[in-house]
Amino acid sequence: MVSKVEVNKVVSVHYTGSYTDGEVFDTSEGREPLLFLVGHGQMVSGFEQEMLGAEIGEKREFTLTPEKAYGMRDESAIQKVPKSQFPDDMQLVPGMVLGAQSDRGPVQFSVVSIDDDEVTVDFNHQMAGMTLRFSVEVIGIREATREELAHGHAHGLGGINH
Ligand code: ZN
Questions:
Q1: Around ion ligand 1, which residues have CB less than 5 A away?
Q2: How would you label 59-93 residue by residue, b for 16+ Cβ within 10 Å and e otherwise?
Q3: Ligand 1 centre and the CA of 160: distance in Å?
Q4: Residues 87-113 pLDDT 10s
Q5: Which DSSP category does 146 fall into?
Q6: How many angstroms does the Cα of residue 152 sit away from the middle of ligand 1?
Q7: What are the tens digits of pLDDT across the range 8-64?
Q8: What is the distance between the alpha carbons of residues 128 and 68, in angstroms, rounded to a whole number?
Q9: Cα-to-centroid distance, 161 and ligand 1 (Å)
Q10: CA-to-CA distance for 14 and 134, rounded, in angstroms?
Q11: H or E segment and range at residue 135
Q12: Whole-model pTM?
């Protein structure tokens, strides 16, 4: 039976992601292939949908609209936070990306601007609102281990190790 990309399989791929103007934002070229467990939210939904059914050696190219990638930008995700909530010795610079703990786990945000007593921050994903292109080649497909299924991610080189 030929293995195909499907839910609960661990797939390794070489990929290149670019913006619509052709600028590459990420690629596995020169690195180990990316390893991911299909169907557990490790990749954006559109990426998995486009790769379902692909076999080893198959190459696919596709374009993801923001809805199928990192979502639309949400203006309400831009918020003002009192400067006193940041450590005194922190050098705040527009564009810097910081992490914080929220009720829903760790979140990332970027600093938009800094006033005397307020900092404007943006909780939108860096790639929200963007249409993204991917070129992907399937390198390997294997069954997920019980541990990987329990963790919801792939283990090993190119995957997550915990
Ligand atoms: Zn794990």
A1: 151, 162
A2: ebeeebebebbbbeeeeeeeeeeeeeebeeeeeee
A3: 6
A4: 889 999 999 999 888 787 788 899 999
A5: H
A6: 7
A7: 999 999 999 999 999 999 999 999 999 999 999 999 999 999 999 999 999 999 999
A8: 10
A9: 6
A10: 10
A11: strand 132-143
A12: 0.81
